UniProtKB/TrEMBL annotation:
PANTHER family: UNCHARACTERIZED PROTEIN YJBQ-RELATED, UPF0047 PROTEIN C4A8.02C. InterPro entries: UPF0047_YjbQ-like, YjbQ-like_sf. Gene3D superfamilies: YjbQ-like (2.60.120.460). Signal peptide: none annotated. NCBIfam families: TIGR00149_YjbQ. This is YjbQ family protein. Belongs to the UPF0047 family.
Length: 138
């Protein structure tokens, strides 16, 4: 069996980290699938998905780390071509990736005690994000 739905969330712009765990759990419950996998994919090239302990320190640390690794700069080819200030946003999102698979058991996502699913906005402006969730299994 396969079930697909979407999680839609507005973001505040660069560095906005959003916990999607409860929405994912609810979606899996609605799917009726008890055992399988949930595949999540954020639509767009300047946002990313992952898992993290969603606590204040790490919510600050991850975006700060990405800004140190891939800082805003007019030197990126994207900036030279488009002059839109988000070359680093594309690169940060690419580094983390747009998709994530989470196992499903007993009708719930299989996550560690301190593991939550997040959406990270890498773009420089607020956006309306859509995460496509496909739950497959029985």
């Amino acid at each position: 069996m396969t079930y697909q739905d979407r999680i839609r969330r507005p973001t505040r712009g660069h560095r906005d980290l959003i916990d999607l765990t409860e929405e994912l759990s609810s979606l899996i419950d609605r799917s009726g699938i008890r055992t399988g996998v949930a595949h999540l994919c954020v639509v767009g090239s300047t946002a990313a998905l992952g898992t993290i302990e969603f606590e204040p320190g790490l919510r600050d640390d991850l975006p700060e780390l990405l800004d140190r690794l891939i800082p805003p700069s007019p030197e990126y080819g994207h900036e030279r071509a488009w002059h839109d200030g988000n070359g680093h946003s594309h690169l940060q999102a690419t580094l983390l990736g747009p998709s994530l698979c989470v196992p499903v058991a007993d009708g719930a996502p299989v996550l560690g005690t301190w593991q939550q699913v997040f959406l990270l906005e890498c773009d420089v402006k607020p956006r309306r994000r859509e995460v496509v969730v496909t739950v497959m299994g029985a």
